[in-house]
């Protein structure tokens, strides 16, 4: 592999532009550099950050390759600035055994655009009843376990999962949703759902499970990760739990940082997501919690769906929206342009913290000589208009269709190799 | 008027015009041997019912036929709908087949809105005949027509809506329409059967039926569905009946002129005592009768009125 020079970039958006030389997958020099035969990416003063890490991606393979494959999802990830993604376990068949997780990891390596880390199911078939073979999957390289899409709602099963995970040094990521409080739920429980006649998904259904799991994690001394935090109350619970020393981390999705349940007025299921879009007060609180580190990171919950699963009546539609290629721009819009985060903060929430949470040694590293060259180059001044059909995913279900967003990925670099450049995947 | 999907935000002038048209149609047809007007001759109206509803479907069918429209009924069983065809494909099929108006009943809230979106380019009108727990606008219009017959102008009239507001599309449509027409609405229900955020609706809310009855001009009872009784929304049918059933003692608390409405089908003995349902104070059969005229008026405003005025 040729050396790579990324010319005229500002690491973390700070200082005067410098050149970054990458050799053998490692940052070899920073400053004024020259190297014979090097591939050159012109930075034009853009912001250089460690490559993004997504703890929460649905790649749909195996089972729903009509909506996304590991190849198309990897392309979307690279174009979105990601160098590592965690592929959720709710595939068909479910990734609740070593065979499936090894398959996903192998396909990820074959595609080679992004490190694809399979998430293992916590329970067999995501049924919430019997622990899956966490140890065998951990031996196969799984670092994160989740029944995402379903809550591990039985407190005893959750306790056992947390206890068992301790010895494996892995993290259990919970989709917090008390199922008895969300039977038939279609939208955030509140004025908007009442007006539209959609059955409510109460905030307490999330908050109660997060509170319970924080207590359990503290009790057994295990690490807990909370998926897609959506309510102000959950942020309060997390702050409380962290203050008393609980080893809990949490993620928020880009869409929960921007959109509210006001979007539901048209009944267009492109806005249907689980947990549901909440209120403006929730959005404000989630942004503040992310800025303060109460919520650790941003995760996309990238969820591609076929047209027929979205262009239908609200209750029949599948929840979820695309996220990999819009995440950075939404973070810029909601956190940078509002002054809540600087570029160091963006690196923290999109790269460093997710890498730490999942225990990835070579991702989310500082931009320093000798560190792995997993990098993303961001043009903060760019503005672009979202067109679902033009995104790399097979599916096109984005709620940001037609929206003009700030910030664009100029290039993504995985171990010294350019995996995305100005909106294209290099041949 | 292109579609009738909801009474939320309805222009009071338009609502009054529809009600006036219904009253005129009723008058025009009264005593006639052949109840047939030529107004919608050559127009095709299709009813698509994804939920069973004899009352509403028949009412629409008769309304269309009395206006001389060609009325085709599609039910979810025995059709492509029953074979799992998507709502969108069904909509496109109906439009391609030449429907001028699709009347839809669907268990999903918002289904009529979605349908109207898909049929927009085809120029087909959509009438929401009940979508999930969202709205049932023609029911509200027929309720208003019935109340106007009994009470006259609804401005400053007081109407109590009693029972399962949470799951009731009838209640939502009535709240919007009655308040638009100037009435004061009181919702009376246990807290488990009231929606979140109801305190911000333009209504009064109460849990005490007896305290509210003396000041009401009308009481509208809502149907309590069987699954609510077993779903823990209230302890028992007996307790519901004691707290919220309209019996003869409670009827006596109402002013003499007050009217009793029920969208049907009724649970006699629980929601309403038989003697109350059959009393002259109850306008329940009037509601059914007015339903036909109101739906004729709606079809007229959707399919005939614009042509005449343009």
UniProtKB/TrEMBL annotation, chain A:
PANTHER family: ALLANTOINASE. The active site is at 301. The keyword Zinc applies. This is Dihydroorotase. Its cofactor is Zn(2+). Belongs to the metallo-dependent hydrolases superfamily. DHOase family. Class I DHOase subfamily. InterPro entries: DHOase, DHOase/Allantoinase_Hydrolase, DHOase_cat, Dihydroorotase_CS, Metal-dep_hydrolase_composite, Metal_Hydrolase. SUPFAM superfamilies: Composite domain of metallo-dependent hydrolases, Metallo-dependent hydrolases.
UniProtKB/TrEMBL annotation, chain B:
The gene is pyrB. Residues 156-302 form the Aspartate/ornithine carbamoyltransferase Asp/Orn-binding domain. Belongs to the aspartate/ornithine carbamoyltransferase superfamily. ATCase family. Pathway: Pyrimidine metabolism; UMP biosynthesis via de novo pathway; (S)-dihydroorotate from bicarbonate: step 2/3. Carbamoyl phosphate binds at residues 55-56, 105, 136, 139, 264-265. GO terms for molecular function: amino acid binding; aspartate carbamoyltransferase activity. The lineage of its organism: Bacteria, Bacillati, Actinomycetota, Actinomycetes, Pseudonocardiales. Coiled coil: none annotated. Heterododecamer (2C3:3R2) of six catalytic PyrB chains organized as two trimers (C3), and six regulatory PyrI chains organized as three dimers (R2). GO terms for cellular component: cytosol. Pfam families: OTCace, OTCace_N. It comes from Saccharothrix syringae (Nocardiopsis syringae). It is an enzyme of class 2 (transferase). PANTHER family: ASPARTATE CARBAMOYLTRANSFERASE, ORNITHINE CARBAMOYLTRANSFERASE, MITOCHONDRIAL. Keywords: Pyrimidine biosynthesis, Transferase. GO terms for biological process: 'de novo' pyrimidine nucleobase biosynthetic process; 'de novo' UMP biosynthetic process; amino acid metabolic process. PROSITE patterns: CARBAMOYLTRANSFERASE. Its EC number is 2.1.3.2. It comes from the Bacteria. The keyword Cell inner membrane does not apply. This is Aspartate carbamoyltransferase. NCBIfam families: asp_carb_tr (TIGR00670), PRK00856.1 (NF002032).
């Amino acid at each position: 592999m040729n050396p790579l020079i990324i010319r005229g970039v500002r690491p973390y958006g700070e200082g005067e532009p410098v050149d970054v030389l990458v050799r053998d997958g490692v940052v070899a020099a920073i400053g004024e550099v020259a190297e014979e035969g090097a591939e050159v990416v012109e930075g034009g003063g853009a912001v250089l950050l460690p490559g993004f890490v997504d703890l929460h991606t649905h790649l749909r393979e195996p089972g729903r390759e009509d909506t996304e494959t590991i190849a198309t999802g990897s392309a979307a990830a690279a174009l979105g600035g990601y160098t590592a993604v965690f592929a959720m376990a709710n595939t068909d068949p479910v990734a609740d055994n070593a065979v499936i997780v090894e398959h996903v990891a192998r396909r990820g390596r074959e595609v080679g655009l992004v490190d694809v880390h399979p998430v293992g199911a916590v329970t067999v078939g995501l049924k919430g009843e019997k622990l899956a073979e966490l140890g065998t999957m951990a031996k196969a390289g799984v670092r994160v376990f989740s029944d995402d899409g379903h809550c591990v709602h039985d407190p005893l099963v959750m306790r056992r999962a947390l206890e068992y995970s301790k010895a494996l040094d892995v993290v259990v990521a919970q989709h917090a949703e008390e199922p008895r409080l969300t039977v038939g739920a279609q939208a955030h429980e509140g004025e908007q759902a009442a007006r539209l006649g959609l059955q409510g998904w109460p905030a307490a259904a999330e908050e109660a499970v997060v509170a319970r799991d924080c207590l359990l994690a503290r009790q057994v001394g295990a690490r807990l990760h909370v998926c897609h935090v959506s309510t102000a109350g959950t942020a309060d619970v997390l702050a409380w739990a962290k203050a008393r020393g609980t080893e809990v981390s949490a993620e928020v999705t880009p869409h929960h940082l921007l959109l509210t349940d006001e979007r539901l007025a048209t009944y267009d299921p492109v806005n249907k997501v689980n947990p549901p879009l909440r209120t403006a007060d929730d959005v404000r609180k989630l942004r503040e919690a992310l800025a303060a580190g109460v919520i650790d990171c941003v995760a996309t919950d990238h969820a591609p769906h076929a047209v027929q699963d979205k262009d239908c009546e609200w209750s029949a539609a599948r929840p979820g929206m695309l996220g990999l290629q819009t995440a950075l721009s939404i973070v810029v819009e909601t956190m940078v342009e509002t002054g809540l985060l600087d570029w160091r903060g963006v690196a923290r929430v999109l790269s460093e913290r997710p890498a730490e949470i999942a225990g990835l040694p070579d991702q989310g590293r500082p931009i320093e000589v000798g560190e792995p060259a997993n990098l993303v180059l961001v043009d903060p001044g760019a503005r672009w208009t979202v067109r679902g059909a033009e995104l790399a995913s097979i599916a096109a279900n984005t709620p940001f269709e037609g929206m003009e967003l700030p910030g664009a990925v100029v290039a993504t670099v995985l171990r010294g190799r350019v995996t995305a450049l100005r909106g294209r995947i290099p041949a | 008027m292109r579609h009738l999907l909801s009474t939320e935000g309805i222009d009071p002038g338009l609502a009054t015009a529809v009600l006036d048209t219904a009253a005129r149609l009723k008058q025009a047809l009264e005593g006639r041997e052949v109840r047939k007007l030529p107004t919608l001759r050559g127009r095709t109206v299709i009813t698509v019912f994804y939920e069973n509803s004899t009352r509403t479907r028949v009412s629409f069918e008769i309304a269309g036929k009395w206006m001389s429209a060609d009325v085709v009924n599609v039910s979810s069983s025995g059709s492509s709908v029953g074979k799992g065809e998507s709502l969108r494909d069904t909509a496109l099929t109906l439009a391609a087949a030449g429907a001028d108006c699709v009347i839809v009943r669907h268990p999903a809230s918002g289904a009529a809105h979605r349908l109207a979106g898909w049929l927009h380019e085809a120029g087909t009108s959509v009438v929401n005949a009940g979508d999930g727990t969202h709205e049932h606008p023609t029911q509200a219009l027929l309720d208003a027509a019935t109340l106007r017959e009994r009470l006259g102008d609804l401005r400053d009239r007081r109407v109590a809506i009693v029972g399962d507001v949470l799951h009731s599309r009838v209640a939502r449509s009535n709240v919007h329409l009655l308040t638009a027409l100037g009435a004061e609405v009181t919702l009376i229900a246990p807290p488990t059967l009231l929606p979140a955020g109801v305190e911000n609706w333009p209504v009064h809310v109460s849990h005490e039926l007896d305290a509210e009855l003396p000041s009401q001009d009308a009481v509208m009872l809502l149907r309590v569905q069987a699954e609510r009784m077993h779903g823990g929304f209230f302890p028992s049918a007996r307790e519901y009946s004691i707290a919220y059933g309209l019996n003869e003692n409670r009827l006596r608390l109402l002013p003499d002129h007050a009217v009793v409405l029920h969208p049907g089908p009724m649970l006699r003995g629980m929601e309403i005592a038989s003697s109350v349902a059959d009393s002259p104070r109850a306008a329940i059969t009037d509601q059914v009768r007015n339903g036909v005229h109101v739906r004729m008026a709606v079809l007229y405003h959707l399919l005939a009125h614009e042509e005449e005025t343009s």
